Structure formats: structure tokens, C-alpha cells
């Protein structure tokens, strides 16, 4: 093998190594970014409001007069926020 051919082969190996390491670095960055953004989700229960309307019609002894009463009741459910917590890693002795 001539020195020129050896140099060309080394350049080719360097290029292949650069492409493989660049792809691995990009994949690692993508995976780390997705893993970091996945832990920031916070589950929250939305506030729901229940409105109940009751209509009561009372009629006195004379049928020509009518009184209407409307009662509105609102119930508000409290918001529940769940925040995930990290746990300490479990140590292993390496054997069984």
C-alpha cells in the first residue's frame, strides 16, 4: 500500500467516524430533550361549576295572579394539582 492510498483511507475513515459520531450526538440530544420535556407535564383537574335552577310557581286562591321564584345554586369543585416527585436511586451491590 502506498502512502497516498493510506492517507486517502485515513481521510475516508475520519469522515465516516465524523458522520457516525454526529448522528449519535444528535440522537442523544433529541432523546435528552424529549425526556426533559416529558417530566414538566403537570396534571390538573379543571374547575367545574354546576348550576342548578329550580323554578317554583305558587298560585294564590285566585287563579289570575301568578308568582314565579327562581333559585340558582352554584357548586365549585376545588382544583387538584399533581406534581411528580423524584425518588432517590436504589444502590446495588452488583452481585446476587
Provide the structure class: alpha+beta
Work out the oligomeric state of the chains in this entry: single chain
Beta strands, count: 4
Report the biggest beta sheet as strand number plus sense, adding barrel if it closes: 2 strands, antiparallel
Q: Point out poorly predicted stretches.
A: none
C-alpha end-to-end distance: 53 Å
Element order: H for helix, E for strand: HEEEE
Q: Count every helix, treating DSSP H or I runs of 4 or more residues as helices.
A: 1
Radius of gyration: 36 Å
- Mean pLDDT equals 76
Strand order of the largest sheet: 1-4
Instruction: State the share of residues found in helices, binned by percent.
Output: 25-40%
* Bulk shape: elongated
Strand percent estimate: 25-35%
Explain this structure to me?
The chain is of the alpha+beta class and 96 residues long. 38% of the residues lie in helices and 25% in strands. It is built from 1 helix and 4 strands; from the N terminus they run H-E-E-E-E. It has one helix at residues 3-38; strands spanning 43-44, 49-58, 67-76, 81-82. The strands form 2 sheets. It has a two-stranded antiparallel ribbon. It has a two-stranded antiparallel sheet with strand order 2-3. The longest helix has 36 residues, at 3-38. The chain is elongated and about 110 Å long.
Amino acid at each position: 500500500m502506498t502512502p497516498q492510498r493510506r492517507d486517502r483511507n485515513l481521510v475516508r475513515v475520519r469522515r465516516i467516524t465524523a458522520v457516525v459520531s454526529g448522528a449519535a450526538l444528535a440522537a442523544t440530544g433529541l432523546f435528552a430533550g424529549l425526556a426533559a420535556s416529558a417530566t414538566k407535564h403537570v396534571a390538573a383537574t379543571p374547575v367545574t361549576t354546576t348550576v342548578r335552577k329550580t323554578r317554583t310557581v305558587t298560585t294564590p286562591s285566585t287563579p289570575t295572579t301568578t308568582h314565579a321564584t327562581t333559585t340558582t345554586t352554584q357548586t365549585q369543585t376545588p382544583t387538584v394539582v399533581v406534581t411528580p416527585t423524584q425518588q432517590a436511586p436504589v444502590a446495588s451491590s452488583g452481585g446476587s
